[in-house]
## 1
Amino acid sequence: MRRRQGGFTPVETLVGVAVALSAIAASLVLVRGLQQLAVRAARDADRAAAAQWALDRIVREIARADLGTCPGREAHCPDEPLELLDVGWLGVRADLDRDDPDLAAEPEQALAGIFARTDTGNDEVVVFLRRGRGFSRATFEADLESTGRATTATGDEVAPRDGRVERIDAGPADLPGEGGRGTLYRVTFVNDARHLGTARFRVVEPLADDAIDFAVRAWDARGVPVAACGGRDDAAGRGCRASVRRIALELTVGRAGGRQQTFRREIAVGEAW
């Protein structure tokens, strides 16, 4: 009987190659899966960081909302620190450029109109809202427009305050639980009188994507919940907003695999209002 010489037969070689290729394919699938997990984890981390940064920014601007405004109870002063309060959006007014003498002077001096002074420009009225499908609209009443015109030191044309409030539209927005995934926005308004009543009157800045919910809650000095005051410039609305002493914000963002993550911030406000 003849003995087989050393080495593999063609069949054994093919089987070995097949096994090796299967192992390589399995390794590639594993590596691809790990890469996808890493990408999803990085995306989740970015969303979480953006959500926390957005809430921190909102809290900082709420904290400044007692600067350059009146308490919201005087009929002669239409500028309120809290211009809009609803369950899904919030509007504040503050002298955000107070620390810069040049920016603080203009266009505020030209905007003063019938008042001795005005410390807040239109761009210092800030509305925070979430927009998915935009089933609702965030509106409030404030003195941001007039038929008069004044020119700033830099040659820009503005509409001086005339003591009369107008309905200001901050744009489409969604209440908690409606509109699906969207974006959390910061909305301000331009001082340039040429854009009054046009789409360019609003300046919309995205803060956080994949926002599923944005909720606002408020309490008075006794810890009693304050209902959604809205933005009407009447005695009831002004008194309601002026009573706020604590605000809580909740922002829910989407994560990989259909999961969600909620971030919360709370701030005591209004002591100087």
Note: The first strand starts at residue 82 and ends at 85.
## 2
Amino acid sequence: MSIHTGNVTGRCGRIEAVPSRNGPGHFTPLVMIPSYNTGKKLFETVLAARCFWSTVWVVVDGSTDHSPETLASAFPFDPGLRVIVLSRNRGKGVAIRYGAEEASRLGFSHVLAMDADGQHPARLIPEFMDCARSHPDSLILGRPIFDVTAPPLRVHGRKISNWFANLETLWAGMGDSLFGFRVYPIGPLLEAFKKSPGMRGFDFDPEAAVRISWSGTPMINLEAPVTYFSQSEGGVSHFRYFRDNVLLTWMHIRLIFGFLLRFPMLLWRRTKSFSRSKMRSRPT
């Protein structure tokens, strides 16, 4: 395992698995887990991810729960695990951006992002990666399947954000805007970061999906079960109802203006897509 400590710049330490650069179209993915004070759930998530994928990066976003030391002790000789430590907490989006920029520099092509709190199903990593391998130019989105552990407010409240995100993309096929278990092609993801003043905290997942769709990247939805853990089970949530909903509201206001500016292009693209689908459906 290699650990890199830094701010938001700088070179990293020992890298055990550096992908080869095979030119355009090569597929070299990794699993990326941003984490902020997720306690023992981070260890469980990393262990599960390493069971299903060979290259896993953890971006510790200014945590104070001794995450790097815990992982170094638990995985001392694991060449597939890399831990990046950011000096202060700046949000999930910042952690993902730092990790994606570093992954791009080293030649990786795709990032499967998953949360550190154990809610996302590590066993589906191979399925999502296989889909991304078959469709390397697409954004592979998880569509959450909730069980009885899901808080009703989270299940029903997300419908508002999903409706706006689908409006902003002119119903291009986004199954869920808030679910963070997804495979990003790194190029479009980094371009989305460059064009946004936000995408740092709770607004990262929906805005990233909308902006990547605006770039013309197709979206593919795969179902994924979600499990919420109670505090007694080690569950951790940094969601704050008022703060994060204000953040989402402001994000959608910005995106609506962006949608209006892009409306002619999006309408042309949707019309063209509909025409192609209609042609394919005609009997020969």
Note: The mean pLDDT is 87.
## 3
Amino acid sequence: MYPPLLVSKRTIMILAVCLISIVASSCDGDPGPAPRRALRFERVSSATGVPLTPAVTPDISATISAAFPVNTQPGGQAPVVPAEATYSVIQTNIVTGIRKSIDVRLDEEVSEASLRAIALELKSGDSRHYERTFIVYYLPGMPVGGGGWATTHFDPGLEVRILGLAGQEERADPSGPLISTREDIGTWLDDVTGSQIVMYSEGGKSYVEHYFKDGSFLKDELVDKPSPLGQRLESKGGSELGRHWVVDSFGNLQIRDNVGLISTAKRIK
């Protein structure tokens, strides 16, 4: 047998301390990452219990309509020409940005309302801008340029007039002889528009006739108004811009509006 091993108290204490240190270090070790928990989605309810209100999307249709208006007439109504008011365009003459003249052949006489509808339809068919649009209507058999049966002029507002049939009271050539019952006021040449302007009195009324280079012809009734500049004449139906004529002391024809002098046409007769 082995002899008993004698161990001092000091050695026992040292061994005990070492054992305690080993046990403590094993307890403090990193146990490794904890297992990952599966994600859970929970429904969250409003604290007040009131259901959520969806966001309101603003209606921008009105804004778009204002920015890109459709080609309709005032009041939002597109022109509607009655089925019986049939017509065809004879010719169109354009001075870009200034004037558009249209000669129209009617199949028969129509009412003022039908003329207005035709005028609006013709004007809305061209998106280009003109200061004025002149439309002259001829009945079957009437020569173009010899005076129309009716007119619808945008000057710039729409003016509808039925002049009636052209007979001996009308003349197609401004240089032709005057009817004996007419009193000639004067004949002028407007260099701006290239038109010839003829004014005369007959039966207690005054008239103006415009003869354009493209062959179109316009006629209107005039009224006299006092003016310190000379004899003032203007359209009986008036004009939104106050357009009128003044025969000055030299016999020339001043073309004016509310702003002032537009141009002066020289007297040729």
Note: The mean pLDDT is 74.
## 4
Amino acid sequence: MSHISATFAIVDMWLYKFRYWYHKKCLRIVLSRYIILLETITCKYIQEKQFIFCYYVIKRGERMDWIRIVQKAIDEIELNIYEEMDADLLSGHQFVSSFYFQKMFSALCGCTVGEYIRNRRLTLAGYEIANTEQSILNIAMKYCYDSAEGFSKAFTRFHEISPLAARKNKSNLKAFAKISLIKNLTGGKVMLGNLEERGYIVKETGAVYYTTDMDRTLSWFTDILGWYGQIEARNELNEGTYGCVNNIPIEIESLRIAPFTGIHMFRGEPIKRVVGFMLIQGVEQLYSFVKSRGWNEISEVENQPWGGKTCSVTTIDGSILTFFE
């Protein structure tokens, strides 16, 4: 038996022994023995062939909730993104060992503390370069770079385009979004926190959308618009043939407590014109949200003669979604 198989076997045993607390307390394990240091997986959750991991350290009966600790560190990074910080500083504010903090951060987030800080700064810097007139040097200094040269190298490595070219061409830049650990651990399911962050609600829609790469299209809807979705059917080549993307989590939509406000996706050549005309609440918030994700293929919000406001987004497939309120 491989090391990882043995680990999963141990995890299954603990889940069986503590199934009451697992189901009633949700991702919590209660142990009563003396000193227990658990650095491996303490919860295994399987969803669509993906393993979702939850890490804890339990010591002298006191449980250290690493999800909470790391999420608080992420929130601190976001609040102080313009300030100098590192893993030692962040771990100190959480009163945990820097060694274990860095280890758990990497395990839960899929990147190191330094990579997360750098990627978030370069994402925000890219938005400012593409949408403001600030000098590149000022933006570099704002995001804690000592020189424009060092910033330019990091920017080019991350966005695969230089700051000057990005500003000149108004290019669509890469975006590294703030990490939500609960969203990661649940596979992006039923996360209503995104609704508050997004700031807008779709009232009605039902468009039909064609794409030749449904996985890529689904990722675009979730990353750029903040929607939810899943691929329901695939062909023998594992290519998506039918799926849905929705303004609200799929689980809530399936309860039939609200009308369907999503888009049906089918495999086919994308239509290079308007494919959806959707009523929403918060069109300015939609515009700001999409721009903050580094996507510039969106029109300015326009006041219409009939009293409404509209703005259109060109998708990764070249189709156009028009939103109005």
Note: Residues 1-63, 186-192 have pLDDT under 50 and may be disordered.
